[in-house]
């Protein structure tokens, strides 16, 4: 059968468009209905409106910056463009009336000149904007202040995400104080309103993953496991730390990872004992151990995986001893993961279990317990953020995804070992989502031998 050139061309164009759609979807693929359901669920917890600003386009002036949405805003909207805001309104309190919508997405006026450089954006006046955004109503961002003032007359309070320092947490670390600025704007807009922290309710929802979120997490984890296996097969003395990281990032990006979930850590020798080592300029020496803590972010969801390798493919007896203690601590901690267990709080929790194990196995060069070389927590939640927010003394529930990551770091022996896996809490216990990455010393050595330091 003969196909005309025009038909072939049309088919190619259709293919190209479909491929672009797949690529775009691969990074942010949740149905709009899921974000709407989250807003509906959050609304049930609210006795006043909740307002939230997404990130602006001006927060990261780096030439390398690619816009990434503020995670709470993204979680509730799925909207991945800058300078947007949202308001979610509960039913009016007794004796009051609210005739307006229950959810509004505010978008900036389109800048057609800028769009020639940066691509088309959804605008408030676009036909079908509300349906495209999956919101009840879309309005121009210039209406936000007046709407908030109208709402304040009905509820006299407003929820938002307070700056971390107002929750007793860390100060905002990013260069741009997003939440501080947003709160200043709210105070200036409705000076008489009581401002309440909506973060705990949002964080609590974010701690339990939906099937859609889980699929993105698993994809991020699978690609990160592929990268770790590549590192095992490639590792050999003489390579530089950055070369291992470079290959791992290539595996991630080839698979559709939009960015690393955190700065890659590849620490050889003494650097293996530095928790968040990110310089990566040292040459890997025969006899070193190398801590590799590298994870990609897929569709906005972070993987966080660590493996520790013997540079030459075989642990020394002492390295192996420390490795097996960390592995034992990880297994003891994993055994306790089930609904009802806690990361922190109470008399026994995941942290106390891992710490007790390390303190009761092995000794340092002075014959002292190893607990003092275990200088971080064993677990955190994982999701849109690598350290996903939320209470760590909340009992675990099925559908939560956490890391289990004990470690021992002995600078005087130049031995650092961390083993970190990503774990789903199930109805009866746990499932290791990163289990395809070899974890025992034997399995690590076997995969390294299968590559022979030559995977290229
Ligand atoms: N990669 C950071 C952490 O393990 O928490
Ligand atoms: Mn971690
Ligand atoms: Mn990690």
What does this structure look like?
The protein is of the alpha+beta class. It has two domains: 203 residues, Creatine Amidinohydrolase, Chain A, domain 1, CATH 3.40.350.10; 241 residues, Creatine Amidinohydrolase (Alpha-Beta Complex). The protein has 13 helices and 17 strands. A four-stranded mixed beta sheet has the order 1-2-3-4. Strands 7-10-11 form a three-stranded antiparallel beta sheet. A three-stranded antiparallel beta sheet has the order 8-9-12, covered by helices on one side. A hairpin with a 4-residue loop joins β16 and β17. α11 packs antiparallel against α12. Bound molecules: glycine and manganese (II) ion (2 copies). One manganese (II) ion binds next to loops.
